[in-house]
Each structure stands twice: as structure tokens, then as C-alpha cells.
Specification:
elongated, FAD/NAD(P)-binding domain, 22 strands, alpha+beta, binds flavin-adenine dinucleotide, single chain
């Protein structure tokens, strides 16, 4: 046999696994010419590595499956490990850990650590089969063999950075179920009634978005193609179809301004451009608040529960992650090994586990890689 372990992919989860395994145990196969392409562009080039607020409530997926890995290698353990590699992260936005200057600091650590294993770059995995307890991993260059394979090939988001559906294809070929995939942490496109948003492109305002029972808070950014910004990206985790409700005036009380003589555009705590665009849309004049009729007040108050049905999302080319994936009910939560095929493992985004914005997806990639590494090392 060529190798002990074959790791498919050279992204966050694969690099962590390659770093944690003993020297010369694995070969890592990556279709890009360099590993860690997504890490480099993540978090605006500074990589939001993890978050001081950690727990299964920040994830979409089976909490019972996510919990053991998050517990075994949590944000503190991750930070200790990275600090031992001389990373000097900083906290931004109160709870989010970022690289100090550039995501390259993290990629450099992984490049150095993963050199313990064989790296096959610029090599694309085409299919995986198994005969007589040996896995055959066919690539565009050759066929590798090993008794264990770890699928760390991520989801479908950002195909220009190497994303492919190979992980799902491999899973299906071994009898696994794939939970329907969709772009997530992505902007939402709007329908005709909201085309006036286009004129506000570039403007950002604080909102609370209700999607069924779920609520996402933060900034909403009006974009040329629709809506973006942290609150909208998080909302895309929960939205599939149908209406969402946006509160453009969170933490604002209409009662507190009762009888106010101020102009509406001066009264409402949101960018004047946004207020004015909505007033035109609601066919309301920008007049002193106390002069509004009951019917006009009712119209204006819809800004606290503005209902719209997104047309769709900006798609995989713009999505930070892919929700859905390999059904975690068929994977051992302690080891990340398939319950259908001995020696076949799945880690990272290819699984049906998706984190919110804020470093949760890297934390999952690293935590699941850690569980897998400990299981392999124990064997
Ligand atoms: C623009 C952007 C910004 C992001 N910012 C953040 C952030 O700040 N914080 C955060 O937590 N998350 C962020 N994410 C999400 C995060 O990058 C992913 O969740 C994480 O990288 C998943 O790790 P992974 O190892 O599972 O998959 P990936 O990192 O996607 O790695 C999979 C690797 O497999 C390779 N591959 C695919 N198919 C094949 C094949 N057939 N043969 C060989 N190799 C193959 C790919 O080239 C890729 O390198 C961001 C994502 C994007 C796109």
C-alpha cells in the first residue's frame, strides 16, 4: 500500500488534521497549486479563526453530533495550539479572534506543520473505491492506496477557490445520505417590489431579521444585487423560501416619540437616505411626526416589521459556506468515521454542520479534524 491515510482536500480541516497526525502518516491531495486558499481570503483577508462565544447554538446541524468535537477541542484549546505555533491573534468586534495582520500568518503555520506529511498539490481526486479493505483514490495523475481515507474536501461555495462536489459524490458512492445543500452565509436577492433598494447600494443600517422562529441581528447592507451584511448572511442560514420580516428600527420605541414635532427623517434612528427611500415607497410625505394620520402612522410603523419574500440568494459563487451535506446521523460523532464504511472519515464543511458568521465554520473545521486525528492516532 502507498500510504497509511489519504486526506482529500487541503483546506482548513485537512491542514489541521495533517498538522496533528504523527510525521509521515498521511498524504494530502489538493486540487489547487497551494493549500489553504479559502483561509487566505477569509475574514476580509485576516481570517476570523474562532469566537469567545462558543456552543452548539451557533450551529445549524445536530447539536448532539457537534457537541463532542466542540468540547474536545474548543476555542480555548484551538487558541492555545495556535499560540504554541507563534500565532498572535487579536480580538475584534468584542468576541471574534482574527489574525493580527493577515490570514497568511495562519496559512504559514499550517504550511510548516503539514510538511510532516506528503503534499500532492495540483492533483484532483476523481473517485474513491474500496476492495479487500483497501481504498483506491483515483486522481487525474495516479491512483493512491491506503487503508483509511479522510474526506476534507469542503462544500460547493466559491468554486473559483477549488470547491467541488467530490465529497458528496464519494459519500453517496459508499451509501451515505446527503442532506440537501444550498448556498449559505450569502446575500439575498429581492423581488420587483424591493427594486428601490438598488438606489441605496452601499448604505448599511442596523436591523433585526425574523425568519420563522429564528432572529438575526446586526448590520444590513443594501447591495446592488439585493441585501447583504452580517444580519442578512446569518439569515440566509435559516431562509429557504417564503417571507422574512425585517425590523429596520430595532430597540426603537414608537411610543417614546408620540406627539413629536420632528420631521420623520430626523426622528427615525436610521440613515436619512434609507428613511427617505422608504417614505417615497410608502407614499408618505416627510412631515412632522405628530401630523401623521392614523392610517399614515400604520404605514410608517411597518418599518418595524417590513415583510418581503427574497427572490433567491447570490448563489454559490458568493456564498461563504454550503449548508446541508453528509448526513451526520451516519457518522460517529466521536471519531468522524462513517458508520457505513470502516476507515472512511468525513470532516469540516462537507458534513451537514454549518456555523453562523463569526469564526464558527473554521472552529468546526478544526474541532472535527481534531476528533478525527485523535481517533486515528489511537488506532
Ligand atoms: C470568502 C470566504 C470567507 C470566509 N470567511 C470565514 C471566516 O472568516 N471565518 C470562518 O469561520 N469561516 C469563513 N469562511 C468559511 C470557511 O472558509 C470554511 O467553512 C472552511 O474553509 C471549511 O473548511 P474545509 O476544510 O471543510 O473546506 P475547504 O477549506 O473548502 O477546503 C476544501 C479543499 O478541498 C479541495 N478540493 C475540492 N475538491 C477537490 C478534489 N476533487 N480534489 C482535490 N482537492 C479538492 C479544495 O480546493 C479546498 O482547498 C469563509 C469562506 C469564504 C468562501
Amino acid at each position: 500500500m502507498d500510504h497509511k491515510i489519504i486526506i482529500i482536500g487541503g483546506g482548513a480541516s485537512a491542514l489541521m488534521l495533517a498538522s496533528l497526525l504523527p510525521k509521515n502518516t498521511a498524504v494530502l491531495i489538493e486540487s489547487n497549486t497551494k493549500p489553504g486558499a479559502k483561509i487566505l481570503v477569509s475574514g476580509g483577508g485576516k481570517c476570523n479563526i474562532t469566537n469567545t462565544l462558543m456552543g452548539t447554538e451557533y450551529y445549524l446541524g445536530d447539536a448532539g453530533f457537534v457537541q463532542p468535537s466542540l468540547k474536545r477541542f474548543n476555542e480555548k484549546a484551538l487558541m492555545r495550539w495556535l499560540e504554541r505555533q507563534n500565532l498572535d491573534p487579536v480580538i475584534r468586534k468584542e468576541t471574534q479572534y482574527f489574525c493580527k495582520d493577515s490570514a497568511k500568518e495562519l496559512v504559514d503555520i499550517f504550511s510548516k506543520e503539514s510538511r510532516k506529511q506528503i503534499l500532492c498539490l495540483n492533483e484532483e481526486v476523481l473517485e474513491v473505491s474500496k476492495r479487500d479493505d483497501i481504498f483506491y483514490v483515483k486522481t487525474n495523475k495516479k491512483t493512491h492506496t491506503a487503508p483509511a481515507v479522510v474526506v476534507a474536501s469542503g462544500g460547493l461555495s466559491f468554486p473559483k477557490l477549488g470547491a467541488s462536489g467530490i465529497g458528496y459524490e464519494i459519500a453517496k458512492s459508499f451509501g451515505h445520505t446527503i442532506i440537501k445543500t444550498a448556498p449559505a452565509l450569502v446575500g439575498l436577492t429581492v423581488q420587483k417590489d424591493q427594486f428601490f433598494f438598488k438606489a441605496l447600494s452601499g448604505v448599511s443600517t442596523e436591523v433585526k431579521i425574523h425568519i420563522g422562529e429564528d432572529v438575526c441581528e446586526g448590520a444590513l447592507l443594501f447591495a446592488h444585487k439585493g441585501l447583504s451584511g452580517p444580519a442578512v448572511l446569518d439569515a440566509s442560514l435559516y431562509w429557504e423560501k417564503g417571507k422574512i420580516e425585517i425590523d429596520f428600527l430595532p430597540d426603537f420605541s414608537w411610543k417614546s416619540v408620540q406627539g413629536s414635532k420632528k420631521l420623520i427623517s430626523s426622528l427615525l434612528p436610521m440613515p436619512k437616505r434609507v428613511t427617505k427611500a422608504f417614505l417615497i415607497q410608502l407614499r408618505l410625505e416627510d412631515k412632522p411626526y405628530h401630523k401623521l394620520s392614523t392610517q399614515e402612522l400604520e404605514m410608517l410603523h411597518t418599518l418595524s416589521h417590513y415583510s418581503l419574500a427574497p427572490a433567491g440568494t447570490f448563489g454559490y459563487s458568493k456564498a461563504e459556506v454550503t449548508k446541508g451535506g453528509v448526513d451526520t446521523g451516519e457518522i460517529d460523532s466521536g471519531t468522524m468515521m462513517s458508520q457505513k464504511e470502516e476507515g472512511l472519515y468525513f470532516i469540516g464543511e462537507v458534513l451537514d454542520v454549518t456555523g453562523k458568521l463569526g469564526g464558527y465554520n473554521f472552529q468546526w473545521a478544526f474541532s472535527s479534524a481534531y476528533s478525527c486525528a485523535m481517533s486515528i492516532k489511537g488506532k
